[in-house]
Amino acid sequence: MTRSVHQEKVIRDLTAGWVAAIGAQDGEAALAFYGPDIRSFDVILDQQVRGADDYRDHLARCMLLCNGEPVFEMYDLEVSVEGDLAVCHGMIHCGCEDENGEMKTGWMRGTLVWRCEEGRWQICHEHLSNPFDPCSGELIMEWRPQHQPQLLPRMEKAS
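RESULT FIELD:
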């Protein structure tokens, strides 16, 4: 296995772990994937968050919005690694059960930039977004993939 192929697998596995932590609403596990200088462009609450401390607060507030069973899955993941930087992007299906037990979900685009420092890969930038109609300014929440998306396999939690 070449270094590039190996590093792509490392990033793919780390991303699967990140998805699992977010999906399990395990804030501490999710935060372990982020570097201290994280810059996040999120679709929920804060448009931009800088630094691990602010991101910790942001993530906690986001998780409080989910009253019921959460859904957080990543599809069609593509990974590119060059030196100490990696970029991965795909489509994210997320949401949660509402107070009536009805599942409310939607699709968004997701990009993570990973940086390797001292042998450890961490997310230094995350960008989550929804498409919008530039004429009305409205988000397009009904958007669905026009193909059968490929689910990123879930990572099993280490025991």
